[in-house]
Design a protein that fits this description.
about 230 residues, alpha/beta, Nucleotidyltransferase, domain 5, five-stranded mixed beta sheet, 9 helices, about 50% helix
């Protein structure tokens, strides 16, 4: 059920154009000026600053609906973190994915200690109302310490070689980070990764749908899901 009311009142451009522009920026490794150029090729003259405002205003609303409609995750969760530099300071972006590669949660934290690990575990279980069968992490001890306090009976595998699923989930973010030439604030990063991951989850093709026809159907379904979430269907 869509609980966020998205209104395009007092905007000069049609809702379909706004939703399309936001999708281009959230889905692909494009800068604001590159989206501006693509739209100009289609005969739509929009400044990159307008695109930025639309992304900030409508992007979180659309992807909030996508996240609420995300299917129930698998029961094996992979957790990992990646360091991000913002204004010369290091932060840790913690990410959880299931065994199918769907991003379940992302939290930007200043440290990667037991408190940070507890925060993401609690948020995951609260969001999905689910205790997984197993979590898989690298050898960072913080996860084991947090697990013993949050869910002592939870099966925990700690081995760097087993956590390729989580490590590979960082790659789309890293590509986007390079295209954007970094982030200016922790809040801006947290907002963007939530939007980016929800879009990536919906448009990435599952392993079971690898035939050309299945991929085409999946993309068409993703287009319709975006339009519905954007309230332009």
């Amino acid at each position: 059920m869509q609980t966020v009311k998205i209104s395009y009142k007092r905007h000069r451009f049609p809702p379909q154009t706004i939703a399309h522009v936001v999708r281009l920026y959230a889905r692909f490794n494009l800068s604001l000026r590159e989206v501006e150029e693509l739209m100009l090729e289609r005969g739509v003259d929009i400044s990159y600053e307008t695109i930025r405002r639309w992304t900030v205003k409508f992007g979180p609303l659309i992807t909030h609906v996508l996240r609420r409609r995300q299917p129930r995750p698998g029961d094996i969760w992979h957790l990992d973190e990646v360091v991000v530099k913002i204004a010369g300071r290091s932060y840790w972006l913690q990410r959880a994915v299931d065994q199918h590669g769907a991003v379940l949660e992302e939290i930007l934290q200043s440290k990667r200690d037991k408190r940070a690990a507890k925060r993401i575990l609690i948020k995951l279980m609260k969001r999905w109302s689910l205790v997984p069968k197993r979590i898989i992490t690298d050898k960072l001890r913080s996860y084991g310490a947090a697990k013993r306090e949050v869910a002592p009976s939870l099966d925990h595998w700690s081995h760097k070689g087993l956590n390729n699923r989580a490590e590979n989930s960082h790659l789309p973010f890293r590509k986007r980070e390079r295209a954007m030439q970094g982030f200016r604030s922790p809040g801006g990063l947290q907002l963007f990764v939530s939007m980016h991951s929800a879009t990536h989850n919906r448009f990435s093709v599952p392993a079971r749908r690898r035939s050309a026809l299945s991929i085409r159907y999946h993309r068409l379904e993703a287009f319709e899901a975006w339009k519905s979430a954007a309230n332009v269907a």
